[in-house]
Specification:
Elements: E1 2-3, H1 24-27, E2 32-35, E3 48-51, H2 54-67, H3 73-85, H4 87-110, E4 124-125, E5 135-137, E6 140-142, H5 145-156, E7 161-162, E8 172-175, H6 180-195
Parallel strand pairs: 1-2
Antiparallel strand pairs: 2-3, 4-8, 5-6, 7-8
Helix pairs in contact: 4-6, 5-6
Organism: Anoxynatronum sibiricum
GO molecular function: transaminase activity
Keywords: Aminotransferase, Pyridoxal phosphate, Transferase
Length: about 200
């Protein structure tokens, strides 16, 4: 199963390679999952699709037809329009995401105790926050990335997500799908809140 929901949101020299395109043998074994929520900014509309061997897709369709209702009609028509006629808008959005991505990476890597590799796709960065483990502020102890995420929410009024569920327990996830103005405010609040933590 190949999740390619971010196929159009890649940066620099990165390219999305569809797993099913690697060979006819792989194509016969691959189910490709995609949708409109990320590249077409239609999160919440819940429109996705799967491509794969006909007998598997038929089984999926039969199962789905007996367990859930279909997406609403306006969402289906909007998704068809997005897929057929929105590449220019997607490219404009991708370029704006790239600008925000570069800003956040530069800002994070300029902070004394944070480090972050540069992502090549999607709209998240994942800085390593393990330096702050064992620190505290105002009686709040930071023992892991969840503690740090909760601290940021309480102290800086910004929402970040721990990456422990994604096998990166020393990292938090910051989305750059918001406006540049809000990102700048959020990054300043993040830095200020971090500066208050003492070992």
């Amino acid at each position: 199963m190949s999740d390619e929901i971010y196929e159009l949101l890649v940066y620099e020299e990165a390219k999305n390679i569809c797993v099913a395109s690697l060979s006819p043998a792989i194509k016969e074994k691959t189910i490709t999952i995609n949708g409109v929520s990320k590249a077409y900014a239609m999160t919440g509309w819940r429109i996705g699709y799967a491509l794969g061997p006909a007998h598997i897709i038929k089984g999926m369709t039969d199962y789905q037809g007996n367990t859930t209702t279909s997406p609403n009609t306006p969402a289906q028509y909007a998704s068809m329009e997005a897929l057929a006629n929105s590449r220019e808008s997607v490219e404009m959005m991708r370029a704006e995401f790239d600008r925000r991505r570069k800003y956040i990476i530069e800002k994070i890597n300029a902070m004394e105790h944070l480090s972050c590799s540069t992502p090549k796709g999607a709209f998240y960065v994942m800085p390593n926050v393990s330096h702050y483990y064992g620190s505290q502020y105002n009686g709040i102890m930071i023992n892991n990335s969840l503690d740090l995420a909760n601290y940021q929410l309480e102290e800086a009024n910004i929402a970040v997500v721990t990456e422990a569920a994604f096998e990166a327990p020393d990292h938090i996830r910051i989305s750059y799908s918001n406006s540049m103005e809000n990102i700048e405010k959020g990054m300043n609040r993040l830095e200020e809140a971090l500066s208050k933590l003492n070992p």
